[in-house]
């Protein structure tokens, strides 16, 4: 019996020592926590109780047999039968419980030491069980639908404190993401994206349609008004500049007074033209400009040569280093603006985000249709994850179990469930004794 107990409890000299593992080590399974040690002490106590009960019924059996031989009466036979059956039940259950964790009495009996020898197979079976019963589409949808995430999330977001918390977390995440990103990488990506998009799309037809709408709405007339007004004011202030320009372009053989007269005449005519164009909405030059813009808008949309010239001009402009530098520098300005807005609790960005979260939460908590949409999105996302990565998830279980040290894992499992298993031994002793007593009684009654 002492040998049986040593075999059952194992060598306790290595308690708390890390077990050797393969390439992977799971510290949780290869170390004993104080709670595990407490459980192991409880298991040892229950083993002593079960073994003590076995020794007790063995002693009762010996005494009952001795009393029977001494002529103590029929009762001794009943007690001996009950004790004998109790010993058989206790030994059978001891064998069954011990066989889960090790070879009984150290003998390599087939189908014993199930946990250490079948650990990897148990891990595979556990992974398959989880995959089939917990990671199926029907189970995921049913569980998520029963939770009602949409309504709960809406009610949670509708609380101002929660909306503030989400706003702060999102702002911090945004700041972190923008800080981690290298400006040169983002600038290169933005520049390439804008250039590629511009190269792939012809801009002339769009420009033509836009110009056509502007002319039809008379939007260009305000621009003409500004130009001629500014031109008139400039001519009034810079008359000498205009006349000097005319003098400079005159032939050298003409008399200076003639050049001066010509310059004055040109200036007066130019000033008159600009003044009339400014003051006369129906000026012929305005009408000519309207016709030119209308024809140009039409050519942009339908004339092949005009469209080709615009595309060449677009390519030349995009290829200039100044334009690429401008595109790249735009990211720096945008990033700085976003980071500053994310850091400022009173910025328009954070205020609008908070208001949007509160509005979304209020709608989600009250609108069944929106709740259904949110639940549907979450269900579809979860189903996609579990169906796409089911093998990876189950392999995590399988690989983790495979990485555990067999001996240490056996001891840890025994520490957690061994106390309940010892009750099986106790119950086997009690039930065996009652069954033996019943069988002996029935046999005696039939024999009588």
Automatic annotation (TrEMBL):
InterPro entries: DUF445. Keywords: Membrane, Transmembrane, Transmembrane helix. Residues 1-23 are annotated as: Disordered. It comes from the Bacteria. Pfam families: DUF445. The chain crosses the membrane at residues 48-64. The keyword Transmembrane applies. Residues 1-14 have a biased composition (Basic and acidic residues). One of its GO terms (cellular component) is plasma membrane. This is Membrane protein.
């Amino acid at each position: 019996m002492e040998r049986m107990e040593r075999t059952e409890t194992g060598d306790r000299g290595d308690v708390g020592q890390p077990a050797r593992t393969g390439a992977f080590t799971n510290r949780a399974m290869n170390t004993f926590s104080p709670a595990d040690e407490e459980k192991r002490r409880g298991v040892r106590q229950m083993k002593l109780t079960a073994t003590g009960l076995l020794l007790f019924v063995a002693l009762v059996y010996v005494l009952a047999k001795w009393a029977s031989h001494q002529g103590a009466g029929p009762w001794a036979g009943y007690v001996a039968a009950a004790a004998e059956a109790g010993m058989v039940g206790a030994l059978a259950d001891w064998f069954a419980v011990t066989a889960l964790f090790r070879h009984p009495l150290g003998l390599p009996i087939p189908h014993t030491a199930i946990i250490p020898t079948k650990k990897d197979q148990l891990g595979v079976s556990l992974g398959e069980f989880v995959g089939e019963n917990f990671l199926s589409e029907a189970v995921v949808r049913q569980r998520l639908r029963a939770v009602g995430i949409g309504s709960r999330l809406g009610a949670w977001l509708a609380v101002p404190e929660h909306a503030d918390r989400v706003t702060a977390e999102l702002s911090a995440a945004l700041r972190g993401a923008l800080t981690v990103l290298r400006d040169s990488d983002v600038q290169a990506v933005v520049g390439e994206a804008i250039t590629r998009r511009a190269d792939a799309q012809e801009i002339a037809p769009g420009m033509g349609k836009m110009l056509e709408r502007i002319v039809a709405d008379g939007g260009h007339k305000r621009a003409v008004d500004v130009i001629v007004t500014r031109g008139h004011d400039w001519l009034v202030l810079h008359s000498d500049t205009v006349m000097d320009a005319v003098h400079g372009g005159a032939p050298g053989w003409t008399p200076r007074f003639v050049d001066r007269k010509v310059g004055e005449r040109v200036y007066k005519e130019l000033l008159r033209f600009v003044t009339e164009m400014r003051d006369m909405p129906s000026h012929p030059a305005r009408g000519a400009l309207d016709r030119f813009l209308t024809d140009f808008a039409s050519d942009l949309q339908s004339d092949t040569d005009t469209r080709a010239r615009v595309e060449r001009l677009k390519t030349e402009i995009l290829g200039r280093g100044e334009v690429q530098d401008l595109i790249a520098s735009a990211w720096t300005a945008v990033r700085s603006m976003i980071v500053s807005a994310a850091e400022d609790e009173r910025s328009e960005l954070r205020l609008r985000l908070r208001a949007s979260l509160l509005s979304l939460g209020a709608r989600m908590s009250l609108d069944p249709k929106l709740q259904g949409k949110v639940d549907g999105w979450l269900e579809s996302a979860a189903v996609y994850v579990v169906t796409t990565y089911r093998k990876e998830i189950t392999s995590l279980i399988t690989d983790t179990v495979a990485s555990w040290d067999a001996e240490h894992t056996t001891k840890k499992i025994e520490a957690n469930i061994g106390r309940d298993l010892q009750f099986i031994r106790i119950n086997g002793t009690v039930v065996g004794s009652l069954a033996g007593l019943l069988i002996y009684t029935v046999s005696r009654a039939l024999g009588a």
